[in-house]
Automatic annotation (TrEMBL):
Record's compositionally biased regions (Low complexity): 18-28
A Gene Ontology BP annotation from the UniProt entry: regulation of DNA-templated transcription
Compositional bias of kind Pro residues: 91-103
Organism encoding this protein: Actinacidiphila bryophytorum
Protein name from the UniProt record: Toxin-antitoxin system HicB family antitoxin
Region called Disordered, residue ranges: 1-29, 72-103
Annotated InterPro entries: Arc_rbn_hlx_hlx (IPR013321), Ribbon_hlx_hlx (IPR010985)
Amino acid sequence: MTEPGRPEQADPAGGAGLAEQAGAAPAPRARKQVLLRLDPAVHDALAAWAAGELRSTNAQIEFLLRRALADAGRLPSAARPIPRRGRPPKAEPPVPQEPESPA
């Protein structure tokens, strides 16, 4: 749904792109951006809660919305998991292999 006076833009990840037609892996779907108007006290409470759980306010809102959808049985099966942010996990060092002894 677009606002009055604003042209509707095509979703860049919507249709089959050249990569998909060529048999390559599909491009990730673009995340939707929405404008959310909140009471300042509600925003402050959400921001404090998010900081306590080491999340951004935006990530906290998405987390809460997904949990509410799941609790209500309305979370779509096509919904992808929340992308992990931050530093990637450390790779475990390779296990040293013992040299084979001559027989």
